[in-house]
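Please complete every field before forwarding. Incomplete forms are returned to the sender.

SECTION A: IDENTIFIERS
Entry label: holo-267
Bound molecule: adenosine-5'-triphosphate
Molecule representation: SMILES string

SECTION B: INPUTS
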Amino acid sequence: MKEYNLSDRHIISLKEEKLALSTDDLHVWYGTNEAIKGVSLDFEQNKITSLIGPSGCGKSTYLRSLNRMNDEIAGTKITGEVLYEGVDINSPQVDVYEMRKHIGMVFQKPNPFSKSIYENVTFALKQHGEKNKRVLDDIVESSLKQAALWDEVKDSLDKSALALSGGQQQRLCIARAIAMKPDILLLDEPASALDPISTGKVEETLLNLKEHYTIIIVTHNMQQAARISDYTAFFYVGHVIEYDQTSKIFTRPKIKATEDYVSGHFG
Ligand SMILES: Nc1ncnc2c1ncn2[C@@H]1O[C@H](COP(=O)(O)OP(=O)(O)OP(=O)(O)O)[C@@H](O)[C@H]1O
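SECTION C: PREDICTED COMPLEX
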C-alpha cells in the first residue's frame, strides 16, 4: 500500500454568488470513528459535482450530511457548517422536513413505494397538503418528463411502480424527488445497480436536469464522473484531497493520490 502525504491538497473555491451549497470544516463522527475530517467544499448552482474515492473514505457520509440524513443514525456527531442560502442546515431553527424539500435525495438502490407510478410521484406532495387533482396531474407529467420516463409510462400511471424495470424505477425515484421542486439533488451511486443501457438513460436524465437543479453525485464509476460532471472531489480517508473542474481532475490532476486513483494505480 502506497503512503500518500495527506497535507498535499488542491481545493478550488467558487464565487459566492454562484453557490448552491457549501460546507465549512465539516466533521462527522460515528461514535468515536471520525468519518469526515474537516471538509470545506463549494458547490456551484446548475452544475453536476461528482464525489469519488476508495471504499470507506466517507463519500456517502458526506453526501448524507448535506441534507441531514445522518440524523437518522444513532451516535452521529457533526461539527462545522453546511450552508444553504446563508443558513447552517444543522441550526436548531431549521425545520428538517422543510429543508429536505429543497435538498432532495435519491439512493443507490431504487426504492419506489409499493404503490402506483402516479402515487409515487404525488405521495410527498399530498403529505405536504396538495389536494388539487389538476395540480397533481401537471406535476406528475412534468416530473416524469424531466426524469425522461414519461413516454414509457404515460399510459400506465396506475400500474404498480414495482412492475417497472430497475432503470425505470430509478428514474421514477428521480421524478419523485423532483416533484417537490428541490434546488439540489443528492444522488448516492444512483446507477450502480443498473445495466449499461439504464445507466446511460439515468446519466442523460441528470445532464438534462442540471438546467434546473444543482446535482451532487457519489459514484465509483470514473467514466461516469468524467462523462457527466462539471466538478469532481476526490475523497481519501475522510479528507478531500483534490477538488477541481472534472476535466482537470481526469487529465491534469495536481496531487499524486488523485492521479493514481483516477488512473487505476491507487494503493
Ligand atoms: N451507519 C454507520 N454507522 C457507523 N459507521 C458508519 C456508518 N456508515 C458509514 N460508517 C463508517 O464511516 C466510514 C465512511 O463510510 P462511508 O460509507 O461514508 O464511505 P464511502 O466512501 O461512501 O464508502 P463506499 O464507497 O464503500 O460506499 C467508514 O469507516 C464506515 O465504516
